[in-house]
UniProtKB/TrEMBL annotation:
This is DNA polymerase-3 subunit delta. GO terms for biological process: DNA-templated DNA replication. It comes from Thalassobacillus cyri. Pfam families: DNA_pol3_delta2. InterPro entries: DNA_pol_HolB, DNA_Rep/Repair_Clamp_Loader, P-loop_NTPase. One of its GO terms (molecular function) is 3'-5' exonuclease activity.
Length: 328
């Protein structure tokens, strides 16, 4: 459960704008929540929805105790609809189903809310159907589109939404909170670079998969530096069996990317920016055979690999190509 006071600490500007919309009784029919992962889009969407339905609201603050608040929190309110990607995308049928639901009278009031997560993943047909929905807004309907990439959303959809720009969270604050939870300084620094979401960071830290992923990244670095001819063998027999899912592979590539950023920062003597702080000896050794230019090229190759994974290129092929680029 989050309150507006909580959200002000994370997203002060967005929180202020949404609170003012209640004070002035000017709730928009559609909002576009734009911001990177972990910046509070879903949490604020949930809180805003509670405030819309709560009969005991104090200003913009819902009571969090009434039947409506509890059902919204648990995802069981009949007039609140969440749309999420079905597989890799949000499909036309999902939007058609939503439209059908909205032809019915609200079960408890005439107010309805729908929240589209990862709205940038709508297919073209789904986006066009949603556009028609937005073109004929009901005064008692509120839409929230959540996205990490608003530029991937149709201009015509963006123009019909009030944009809420969620600012990146301060990594230093996340790091401090993690160390306060008993996470080691080196791990806290790494996790704060991976996510701005404290709860997600703690979940990742508690997962043995993550600890093994870190070890595999360091092992791959060792192989690339000392036994480059064995790198493809390592990828096929050790790396790919661990990073089975695309999301896992993206996380592994992030960990690898941080290493190459560290190498560049080490060369530039930016000690405070180094993430793998416990690997300075290995970094010093590697810097003797990897120039700053080669580290920059390696970083570029990793970013290209991440892009290909998002485009559904075969993961093993992507990693094999990346390994060939990273070999000295």
């Amino acid at each position: 459960m989050h309150t507006w006071e909580d959200m002000k600490q994370i997203q002060p500007l967005v929180s202020k704008m949404l609170i003012n919309s209640f004070k002035k009784n000017r709730i928009s029919h559609a909002y576009l929540f734009q911001g990177s992962q972990g910046t509070g889009k879903r949490e604020i969407g949930l809180l805003f929805t509670k405030a819309i339905f709560c009969p005991n609201r104090d200003g913009a603050e819902p009571c969090h105790r009434c039947n409506a608040c509890k059902r919204i929190e648990s995802g069981n309110h009949p007039d609140v609809h969440w749309i999420k990607p079905d597989g890799q995308s949000i499909k036309k049928d999902q939007i058609l189903h939503l439209q059908k639901e909205f032809t019915y009278t609200g079960l408890e009031s005439n107010q309805k809310v729908y929240i589209v997560e990862s709205a940038d993943k709508m297919t073209v047909n789904a986006a066009n159907r949603l556009l028609k929905f937005l073109e004929e807004p009901s005064k008692q309907t509120t839409a929230m589109l959540l996205t990490e990439n608003s530029h991937a959303i149709l201009d015509t959809i963006r123009s019909r939404c009030q944009l809420m720009a969620f600012q990146p969270l301060n990594a230093q604050n996340v790091e401090e909170k993690l160390t306060g939870e008993g996470v080691s300084e080196s791990t806290a620094k790494l996790l704060s670079q991976m996510t701005n979401n404290l709860s997600e960071a703690l979940e990742i830290n508690a997962d043995d998969w993550f600890a093994n992923a870190r070890k595999l990244v360091i092992q791959l670095i060792e192989v690339l530096n000392n036994k480059p001819n064995e790198a493809l063998l390592f990828i096929n027999h050790q790396w790919m069996p661990h990073f089975k899912e695309r999301e896992q592979l993206q996380r592994g590539l992030d960990l690898l990317m941080f290493w190459f950023k560290d190498l560049i920062n080490y060369e530039l003597e930016r000690e405070e920016a180094i993430i793998y702080s416990q690997e300075r000896d290995r970094m010093e050794q590697m810097s003797m055979s990897w120039s700053r230019q080669s580290a920059v090229r390696g970083l570029s190759s990793i970013l290209e690999a991440k892009r290909k994974i998002n485009q559904n290129v075969h993961p093993t092929l992507v990693m094999e190509q990346l390994t060939l680029h990273l070999k000295r």
